[in-house]
Amino acid sequence: MKKAPTIRDVAAAAGVSVSVVSRVLNPESGPVAPAKREQVLRVIGELGYRPRAAARELSAGHALTVGLVVADLANPFFAHLADRVVWEARSHGVQVVVMTTQEDPHLEADSLDTLLDRSVGGVIATPTGGNIEKWERLRDLGVNVVFVDRTIPELEDVDVVSIENSDSARRATEHLIALGHTRIGLITGPTSTSTGQARIEGYRTALENASIVVDPMLIRDVPFRGDGGGDAVGSLLALPDSPTGLIVANTAQVQSSVRRLVQVGVRIPDELSVIVFDDNPWTELTNPPLNVIRQPIDMLAVHSIELVLGRMQGRLPAGARRIEVKADFVPRNSSAPLIRSAAS
To answer: Is the predicted pLDDT of residue 91 greater than 60, yes or no?
Structure first.
């Protein structure tokens, strides 16, 4: 069996001293010239050297540190997720460095570099879908990675924690079908994300199982930022055969979507039955209170911390783990049978 490379091997290949390599791996121990730092990191990647950041922290008696990379703290879902991850980490004596990407792959790349500089032992992230080489490099350097809420198909060997996105969208669609609706609009996130893809898949599955033709004109994938939800609502209502049911499966766009419905005077559920992702305090305060898919954010945080700590402390066997938690459908008063919805 080939011997694993050592820190001395890295130093020799990079043409620097062992102390320089050590400072690259532990930035707090001293400065390194940018050119030398890049040279050392390149050699580390080429040799496949794994510095085991968690082991360094444990052996030094320091608190474990993990990075949390979330897509957008302005999104209520991600803000809640970040809060629960930090809370859960604290209960294990773990420090968390929080970074936000604003759904920008370039900012994500910068965030990963920053976390590497901080020598975190693990990273929990909602990936943008890009930066595959960056993620692979992070793992090659011994940083344990857990994706939460989203996945990157090309990185099959990364642990993932998510809700049952396809199943959740399927159940929401089936609820409206059971009420007699066949023209059901769907507003989801970008199809560049695994979450957006899975929710469209669940929606399609429910319609196909009910022998209802899937009309692509009823599906709107919109960005998480901005007012795309309201624009999507406007375009759906403008269709010659407009929907009688609507699922807003883009949490960040729920407010924009509902605001537009109120502005144009749509009566819910008399004219349009509505289901939204996720359950925020205000969804019970609307008139009528909204049916929701409630995502178990607390459990996403619990499982994410369990996985990243298990990897950092060497307590988990090799092989990626995928944990999917079930979301709850909470019926309130925003859906009605088609006959009632069609009434003017």
So the answer is: yes
Q: Which domains does the chain have, with CATH numbers?
A: 22-43+51-163+299-325 (3.40.50.2300), 165-295+328-342 (3.40.50.2300)
Q: Going by C-beta distance under 8 Å and a sequence separation of 6 or more, which residues neighbour residue 323?
A: 159, 160, 161, 162, 303, 307
Mean pLDDT (whole number) for 234-257: 96
Mean pLDDT of all residues belonging to the chain: 88
Say yes or no to pLDDT of 8 above 80: no
The Cα 6–Cα 49 span in angstroms is 7
Q: Quick one: pLDDT at residue 56? A: 52
